[in-house]
Structures are given as structure tokens and as C-alpha cells.
Known about the structure:
- This protein is an all-beta fold.
- The protein has one domain.
- The chain is built from no helices and five strands.
- The strands form two sheets. Strands 1-4-3 form a three-stranded antiparallel beta sheet, with no helix packed on it.
- It is elongated and about 40 Å long.
- The two termini are 26 Å apart.
Amino acid sequence: xxxxxxxxxxxxAWVVGNGTKLNTQIMMKAWWSQIPGLVYIDVPEKxxxxxxxxxxxxxxxxxxxxxxxxx
Length: 71
């Protein structure tokens, strides 16, 4: 799973229903830039539901998304 444009820190991520904790990784983030990187959440195939899988993400505060006009 990929989250793009999220400026918040992710405290935890898990699968709703079975509670499986998921690993997150930030990629393509330049330390000098205000533009957030891409957040990848590793969702193992064994925890996927055939109908729908819901992922919960606990953030460090209210959702703060990057907007292109913030440069």
C-alpha cells in the first residue's frame, strides 16, 4: 500500500479486524525538502481479506497533507 503526500509521522499501522501490525517505510524523501516522501505499508498477502482489507494508521496529530502550492 502507498500513501502519498502525508506530512504526519506514522506511529503505527495495523489490519482492522485481526490486529496484525504492519511495517511502514518512507522512501524518496529528501532531507532538505518540505515535500514529503512516499510511505509504503507492507501488507502481507496472508492477512488480505478476499472481499476488502481495511488498514488503520495512527498519526502523530490531525492529518496534514502536502499541497502542490506550498512550495
